Amino acid sequence: MRSEEVVDHTQINKFPIVAVLIAGAFLAILNQTLLATAIPSIMVDLNLTENTAQWLTTIFMLVNGIMIPITAFLIETFTTRKLFLTAMSLFSFGTLFCAVAPNFPFLMVGRIIQAAGAGIMLPLMMTIFLLIFPIERRGAAMGMVGLVISFAPAIGPTLSGWLVEYYPWRSLFYVIFPFAIIDIIFAYFVLKNVTKRTFPKVDYFSIALSTLGFGGLLYGFSSAGNYGWSSIVVIASLLIGTITLTAFILRQFKLAQPILEFRVFKNKIFTITTIVGMIAFIGLIGAETILPIYMQNMAGFTALESGLMILPGALIMGFMSPITGRIFDRIGARWLVITGLSILTVTSFLYTNLSAETSLTYLTVVFAIRMFGISMVMMPATTAGLNQLPVRLIPHGAAMNNTMRQVAASIGTALLITIMTAFSLKSGENAVPEDLIHGVNVSFYVTTGLSLVALILAFFIKRSTPAEDRAKLEAEENI
């Protein structure tokens, strides 16, 4: 039996730990968008409608979003190794279950099991990185997290588009499964226990409220694009989500050991950087959702072309994330975030004049520049906020940050698709492409406005380097 003792962070070999965590998180997050271009094949094979098949993507994000708030509690209850190996085992089992699923209900169960494991991965990885790296090197470490968050969802549609063109849709799961098993084997031998267990008391009522609250909101906003905002399903989900989430938040302030620590928002910089990160993520996911719809349904591009349009931007963001992390370690977040949000605002505006004749080159180049800007925002803002928190609050800060990002993606995508539909000049059989594209342009005007709000907020991020943040935290802990 391997030792369950927590090792000294300064004495461990970080490279193998970083490698297994990034590999696991990459596989987990890749699955959020992996089925995007495979849905039509699954619909034909399993005889499904579009609305039914779309649940394969929606349920993954929904369960993922429900799991994230609970991870702070799980990190404080179980050892690092046990939690990672359990999460990856769940994900692997769910992947195999999906590959052999004979029908839609079995495939849905597989996606739920996958998402239960995947939801633990990102907050756990962020928490471990923030613990094993000193504050002045966290930027470079979190840059690797940024690579996973941005590159994995962006590469999903391109990868699935290529595989489904030549192989059955089940190949998507058969390709992922062996990589997940290899990661588990490596993790068993190299992963160390770095998180400290405090054994918080299990408050099952809080877990139930959290599940209903975040689940209700995420489901409501995700369903709005399919059913419309006036649907009783959407209204009921949002109402239940809002009421139970409010009860959950109020309950956390009364508990000695809360499931999710909302007091992290008492730190102004953490609050600002979380809002900035949420808006940047809306800009990322919103564009990745709306542009393929515009390209395939309004401008006559193929699914493969819309996937390839995203690819150069994804590669640039993946390449830039570690670089911006190192720059962050030297100069801090403020000017990186301001520069990145300026680029995001300008490129959002460049998408407000699309037409049926807009070239693939224009769409690809603007998207690539856009992703270059987002790479300067996502992880630098997140790391700057988490650097303000004492070590005991880092698991809660990481869980909160990921929860807010997931909520932002769900709300932002539903909002932008609703705007795109509502502002189309005509709909139905008589609508010409330009009528529909008007709604796309309006949705990017809204994205531009949101990016501008984030840019203004970025000027309130304090001018400090990670080394200065560390000195301040150490001084506060000694008081």
TrEMBL record:
<dbReference type="InterPro" id="IPR004638">
    <property type="entry name" value="EmrB-like"/>
</dbReference>
<feature type="transmembrane region" description="Helical">
    <location>
        <begin position="270"/>
        <end position="295"/>
    </location>
</feature>
<feature type="transmembrane region" description="Helical">
    <location>
        <begin position="335"/>
        <end position="354"/>
    </location>
</feature>
<feature type="transmembrane region" description="Helical">
    <location>
        <begin position="55"/>
        <end position="76"/>
    </location>
</feature>
<feature type="transmembrane region" description="Helical">
    <location>
        <begin position="140"/>
        <end position="159"/>
    </location>
</feature>
<feature type="transmembrane region" description="Helical">
    <location>
        <begin position="307"/>
        <end position="328"/>
    </location>
</feature>
<feature type="transmembrane region" description="Helical">
    <location>
        <begin position="112"/>
        <end position="133"/>
    </location>
</feature>
<feature type="transmembrane region" description="Helical">
    <location>
        <begin position="360"/>
        <end position="386"/>
    </location>
</feature>
<feature type="transmembrane region" description="Helical">
    <location>
        <begin position="83"/>
        <end position="106"/>
    </location>
</feature>
<feature type="transmembrane region" description="Helical">
    <location>
        <begin position="437"/>
        <end position="461"/>
    </location>
</feature>
<keyword id="KW-0472">Membrane</keyword>
<keyword id="KW-1133">Transmembrane helix</keyword>
<keyword id="KW-0812">Transmembrane</keyword>
<feature type="transmembrane region" description="Helical">
    <location>
        <begin position="407"/>
        <end position="425"/>
    </location>
</feature>
<feature type="transmembrane region" description="Helical">
    <location>
        <begin position="227"/>
        <end position="250"/>
    </location>
</feature>
<protein>
    <submittedName>
        <fullName>MDR family MFS transporter</fullName>
    </submittedName>
</protein>
<dbReference type="Pfam" id="PF07690">
    <property type="entry name" value="MFS_1"/>
</dbReference>
<feature type="transmembrane region" description="Helical">
    <location>
        <begin position="202"/>
        <end position="221"/>
    </location>
</feature>
<dbReference type="InterPro" id="IPR020846">
    <property type="entry name" value="MFS_dom"/>
</dbReference>
<dbReference type="InterPro" id="IPR011701">
    <property type="entry name" value="MFS"/>
</dbReference>
<feature type="transmembrane region" description="Helical">
    <location>
        <begin position="12"/>
        <end position="35"/>
    </location>
</feature>
<dbReference type="InterPro" id="IPR036259">
    <property type="entry name" value="MFS_trans_sf"/>
</dbReference>
<keyword id="KW-1003">Cell membrane</keyword>
<keyword id="KW-0813">Transport</keyword>
<feature type="transmembrane region" description="Helical">
    <location>
        <begin position="171"/>
        <end position="190"/>
    </location>
</feature>
<feature type="domain" description="Major facilitator superfamily (MFS) profile">
    <location>
        <begin position="17"/>
        <end position="466"/>
    </location>
</feature>
